[in-house]
From TrEMBL:
MF terms in GO: acetolactate synthase activity; flavin adenine dinucleotide binding; magnesium ion binding; sulfoacetaldehyde acetyltransferase activity; thiamine pyrophosphate binding
EC number(s) from the headed UniProt entry: 2.3.3.15
Gene: xsc
Source lineage: Bacteria, Pseudomonadati, Pseudomonadota, Gammaproteobacteria, Enterobacterales
Signal peptide limits: none
Keyword annotations from UniProtKB, A to Z: Acyltransferase, Transferase
Gene Ontology cellular-component annotations: acetolactate synthase complex
Protein name: Acetolactate synthase catalytic subunit
Family: Belongs to the TPP enzyme family.
Domain of life from the UniProt record: Bacteria
Pfam families linked: TPP_enzyme_C, TPP_enzyme_M
InterPro entries: DHS-like_NAD/FAD-binding_dom (IPR029035), THDP-binding (IPR029061), Thiamin_PyroP_enz_cen_dom (IPR012000), TPP_enz (IPR045229), TPP_enzyme_TPP-bd (IPR011766)
Residues of the Thiamine pyrophosphate enzyme central domain: 70-173
Biological process, per Gene Ontology: isoleucine biosynthetic process; L-valine biosynthetic process
Keyword Glycoprotein: no
C-alpha cells in the first residue's frame, strides 16, 4: 500500500481523489486506499463545476535513467560475447513489446521468461529461450534483468564474478523487499518501454562496428535455443495421449488465444512457454507472492472492460472456490 487516507471533510473529496490517483500512478505504480465514511458522504457542499472539468490537480511522478547509465549499459551489451535477458514482466505496452522484439533480434540476445507473469516476447521470435535461467547463467558475461523480482535461484547457481548485471524497471532494486541479494552493477529506473526506447537509441550507433560479433553470437545462441525447442516439442508430443497435462492444456489455450487475439488470466494453471502466445498483453499470471482466487475476478473485470475480446480464465479448483464469493458479489452489483 503506497498511501492511505480517510476522508473527513466532504468538500475535500476532489483533491484527495486527485492525490490518490497521482500516487497510485507514480513509479513504481501500486495500490492506494481512500476510505469514504458514511458521515462526510452524507454532507452537502457547493461544487465548483470549473474545477470538475479541469482534470486532475496532481500528476504522477515519472523518471528515466541518466544518460551515462544508458550509455554504459549499451556499451556492455554491444561488447558482450554471451549476453542474456531474464524477464518476468513485459514492457507493458504494445510499443514496448515491439521494441524488445527488435532489440533481441538485432543483437542476438536470448530472452528467458523465468516465472513470467506476463508475455515478454512473441513465441515467433527465434531468441525466446524458454523458462530455465540456469542454462544461460554460467556463460553469461552481461545479464539484463527486466523487472524481475527473482531472475534466477542464487542457491542453485550464481552469475560469474566478471559478469555485468543490469537491473531495469520502475524499481530495479525492489526497494520495498527486505531481502533481495542480486547484483546491480547498472540500474536503469523508469517505465520499462521508455527505458527500452532509450537503450535502443544508444545501441544504434554501435551496431555497424559489431556486425561480425553479433553474427557469431547468433550462431551460438540459436543452436542452444533449438535444443530447448526440441525438448519442448517432445513433451508436447508425449502429452497428446493419456490424461491432460499442463503442457498440453497450455498449448491448446494458447492456440485459442492466438486465433482470436485473446488473453489468458492464469493462476498456476498454464505454462506460458508452452502456450506459444504471439501478441502483447495476452497473458497474466498472479504475482509470485500468490493471490489464491484472484484470476477469475480479474478475468471478469477484463471481460466487462473489453467485451469484444476473448478472455480466458485458467484456474484450479481451489482458486475457483476462493473466487466464487467475489464473483457472486460482482454479479449482484
Amino acid at each position: 500500500m503506497k498511501w492511505d487516507f480517510e476522508l473527513r471533510l466532504a468538500d475535500q473529496i476532489g483533491e484527495h481523489v486527485d492525490r490518490a490517483w497521482a500516487i497510485a500512478s507514480s513509479l513504481p505504480k501500486g495500490p492506494v486506499y481512500l476510505s469514504l465514511p458514511r458521515e462526510p458522504l452524507c454532507e452537502t457542499f457547493a461544487v465548483d463545476e470549473t474545477a470538475l472539468q479541469a482534470g486532475p490537480s496532481q500528476q504522477p511522478v515519472r523518471y528515466a535513467p541518466v544518460r551515462e547509465d544508458i550509455a554504459r549499459a549499451a556499451e556492455a551489451i554491444a561488447c558482450a560475447r554471451h549476453p542474456v535477458i531474464f524477464a518476468q514482466r513485459g514492457a507493458r505496452t504494445a510499443e514496448g513489446f515491439a521494441r524488445l522484439d527488435s532489440l533481441v533480434r538485432e543483437w542476438a540476445i536470448p530472452l528467458v521468461e523465468y516465472w513470467g507473469t506476463e508475455v515478454t516476447l512473441s513465441a515467433d521470435n527465434p531468441l525466446l529461450a524458454g523458462a530455465d535461467p540456469s542454462v544461460w547463467l554460467a556463460d553469461a558475461d552481461v545479464i539484463l534483468v527486466v523487472d524481475s523480482q527473482a531472475p534466477w535461484m542464487i542457491a542453485e547457481g550464481d552469475c560469474r564474478q566478471d559478469c555485468t548485471v543490469i537491473q531495469m524497471g520502475p524499481d530495479p532494486l525492489f526497494s520495498r523487499y527486505p531481502v533481495r541479494g542480486y547484483r546491480a552493477d547498472i540500474n536503469l529506473a523508469g517505465e520499462t518501454d521508455e527505458v527500452f526506447s532509450l537503450l535502443e537509441e544508444a545501441l544504434r550507433p554501435l551496431q555497424a562496428a559489431r556486425q561480425q560479433h553479433v553474427a557469431e553470437r547468433a550462431a551460438y545462441t540459436q543452436s542452444r535455443i533449438q535444443q530447448q525447442k526440441n525438448q519442448r516439442d517432445a513433451l508436447l508430443h508425449a502429452s497428446q495421449t493419456g490424461a491432460i497435462t499442463k503442457h498440453w492444456l497450455s498449448y491448446c489455450l494458447g492456440h485459442l488465444a492466438n486465433q482470436h487475439r485473446g488473453r489468458i488470466v492464469s493462476e498456476l494453471t498454464t505454462l506460458p512457454q508452452f502456450a506459444g502466445l504471439t501478441h502483447a498483453e495476452s497473458y497474466y499470471q498472479e504475482a509470485l507472492a500468490g493471490g489464491l482466487g484472484e484470476a477469475l475476478p480479474i478475468a471478469l473485470g477484463l471481460q466487462l472492460a473489453r467485451r469484444e475480446e476473448l478472455i480466458i480464465a485458467a484456474v484450479g479448483d481451489g482458486s475457483y472456490l476462493f473466487a466464487t464469493l467475489r464473483s457472486a458479489t460482482i454479479l449482484r452489483r
